[in-house]
Amino acid sequence: MEGKKMKFLGGSEPWQDITKNLDRRKGAVVAAVSYLGPDAPRIMNLKSGDLLVCDASERSIRAGSTSPHALIAYIKKGVDVYTRENLHSKVIVAGSTAWIGSANASSRSEKVKFEATVRTNDLSVVSGALDFIVEQIEESIPVTLGMAKSWIKLMPKKVAIDPLELPSHRPLKVLIIDSWEDWKPEEEERYESNLSAAKSVRSSLGSRSKLFYFESSQDLGYRVQDWVMWVDGEKIQTPLIVVGVFKQNRKYCHYFAKSTAGDFWVDKNEFEKKVRFKVPEDENEVIPEKTAQKIFNYFQIE
Questions:
Q1: What is the C-alpha to C-alpha distance for residues 44 and 146, in angstroms, rounded to an integer?
Q2: d(CA 200, CA 203)
Q3: What homologous superfamily does CATH list for 6-154?
Q4: What is the pLDDT of residues 27-37, one digit of tens each?
Q5: What is the pLDDT of residues 137-184, one digit of tens each?
Q6: Model pLDDT, residue 260
Q7: In whole angstroms, what is the distance from residue 247 CA to residue 129 CA?
Q8: DSSP labels for the chain?
Q9: Rg of the chain taking only CA atoms, in angstroms
Q10: CB 84 within 8 A of CB 140
Q11: Model confidence pLDDT, tens digit, residues 49-101
């Protein structure tokens, strides 16, 4: 950004812009973002040496506003995390750029809510934002790994989901697996590092099924609560719901959970005859809504 520039970001733009810039930044980031969803580490990619202050009070944890699993993931990455009750700011500073607005670090804020944020490199504004964050940290309590783990028991059994975010309102996409290979050690490490956050989302959706995992080198566009129809040769799996997407070491780590209803694997030819629908051969194709509903009905997913 050259000279003084200020840009207004509305709707889904704030996190698209913030995530992109944080992924490629070189210096440290400081942030005062009040609430963190389970997938905050993907949306707001903080690294070792970064500073984060949020509202991780008992009230916020019990309400499901701030996820202990997100705190744990950040702390394990080396982020210095602090909590201040009643914090309600959404301010992020990365180098000479600041974002100031309404967006919490959550999938709801990223994809459903209508947010408003201003990005600026005006030195006086950036300096003021940085001073504000430092002031919040000075009045905050450091969060340790042990503290964050102890707060898991405070989480609500099921986090309330807005009607627009219910799984039946989300897209059904196609994921084609050409071959299976044994996991490499680095894949195991990535899987384990984000597992607790994915489990938290799975629990919030009322599911207890085992998790499925898939890595890609590119962003396939999957987001939490999207549905995926997993195609493996001549077999089709019961549609899976996305419970986590994280970027780590230039890899996109996807976690899926199976619906508690329906079969597990079905024959592709039989499925196509019953539903009267030919499974797309193109990766990540979005299935039309009416056809998607037929597929959900076939697998007894309400």
A1: 22
A2: 5
A3: Endonuclease Chain A (3.30.870.10)
A4: 999 999 999 99
A5: 999 999 999 999 999 999 876 544 333 233 444 568 887 765 556 778
A6: 53
A7: 27
A8: --SS-EEEEEETHHHHHHHHHHHH--S-EEEEES-B-TTHHHHS---TT-EEEE---HHHHHHTSS-HHHHHHHHHTT-EEEE-TT---EEEEETTEEEEES--BSHHHHHTS-EEEEEE--HHHHHHHHHHHHHHHHTSEEPPHHHHHHGGGGS-SS----GGGSGGGS-EEEEE-----PPPHHHHHHHHHTHHHHHHHHHHTT--PPEEEEEESS-----TT-EEEEEETTEEEPPEEEEEEEEETTEEEEEEEE-SSS-SEEEHHHHHHHHT-PPPSSTTPBPPHHHHHHHHHHTT--
A9: 20
A10: yes
A11: 999 999 999 999 988 889 999 999 999 999 999 999 999 999 999 999 999 99
Q: Are strands 29-33 and 90-94 parallel, antiparallel or unpaired?
A: antiparallel
Rounded (5°) CA angle 269-230-200 = 150
More confident: 14 or 182? 14
Q: The tokens of 183 are what?
A: 């996991």
Q: What are the domain boundaries of the chain? A: 6-154, 163-298
Q: Does the pTM of the predicted model rise above 0.70?
A: no
The position carrying tokens 């707060």 is: 151
**Cβ(43)–Cβ(62) under 8 Å?**
no
